[in-house]
Design goal:
The complex is a heterodimer of chains A (about 110) and B (about 140). Chain A has four helices and three strands, in the order H-H-H-E-E-H-E. Chain A is α+β, with helices and mostly antiparallel strands. Classes of the chains: A alpha+beta (about 110), B mainly beta (about 140).
């Protein structure tokens, strides 16, 4: 895609409201070409919940998710309600995690 | 008008050290280790040294890639499910391991830890109060 087209898209998105931007971001397809990652050379442990977060969490941006055994169990607005919903659904020890929006700045804090 | 919060635990920290440090145990199904980390309300996520993830046997780069901003630039980190234990509070959380092996800080941020605790700080006395959020 040319720089001009990208600039045009950015300009249009900059004129959108917060909700409109989120709507557009939700409709975007995930990138088909994933950056080739380096490994730590160990072929080490990876939780199935980590894999789910990596591969499927984008659809839940801005929400909390509960994931157990590599499957989505519940979603919510915060830790307590998401955990409660997951327990009601039968989860025992779900991962409760927030999925950041693509336009959200993630800070390291120092 | 006053406000009252109840805390279950009191942790004393050394005011002579930079930041507010607490002892943390981290677990995966087969490994566990302990380390010191600093509570940082300005950090969005919990960000740990790559070394810790590798010592736990985690394949770091298999996690969710995230670019994290700081006042001086950005760095990349990978999210993984682990169990964090702090003062006998246990949480199944996603923490991020820094891609850079030279990164030597362990930060306990909002998401993954502080979003499931209530904390109070009396820095003058080096006291950190902890309570678990009701679920």
């Amino acid at each position: 895609m040319s720089t001009a087209v990208i600039d045009e898209v950015v300009e249009k998105m900059n004129r959108m409201s917060y909700d409109q931007r989120n709507e557009v971001l939700q409709k975007l397809e995930p990138p088909t070409q994933i950056e080739k990652v380096k490994t730590n050379g160990k072929k080490g442990y990876v939780s199935p919940d980590t894999i789910w977060m990596r591969d499927h969490s984008a659809s839940y941006a801005g929400k909390y998710v509960a994931v157990e055994n590599g499957e989505l169990v519940a979603t919510g607005r915060g830790y307590p309600d998401t955990l409660a919903t997951a327990k009601e659904a039968g989860a025992e020890r779900p991962l409760i995690a927030y999925v950041p929006r693509t336009d959200e700045e993630i800070w390291g804090g120092w | 008008m006053g406000f009252t919060l109840d805390f279950e635990k009191l942790v004393l920290y050394d005011r002579g050290e930079p930041g507010i440090s607490v002892g943390v145990e981290i677990r995966t199904p087969d490994h566990a280790l302990s380390f010191e980390a600093k509570i940082d309300t300005g950090s969005t996520f919990c960000v740990l040294e790559r070394r810790i993830g590798e010592e736990l046997g985690i394949d770091i780069e298999s996690g969710q890639l995230l670019t994290i901003r700081t006042a001086t630039g950005t760095f990349r980190a990978f999210g993984h499910r682990v169990t964090l234990i702090i003062e006998n509070y246990e949480f199944d959380s996603e923490v991020y391991f820094n891609e850079n092996p030279d990164f030597g800080r362990n930060i306990l941020g909002r998401l993954g830890l502080l979003d499931r605790l209530i904390i109070g700080v009396n820095d003058y006395e080096g006291k950190l109060y902890l309570g678990k959020l009701e679920t």
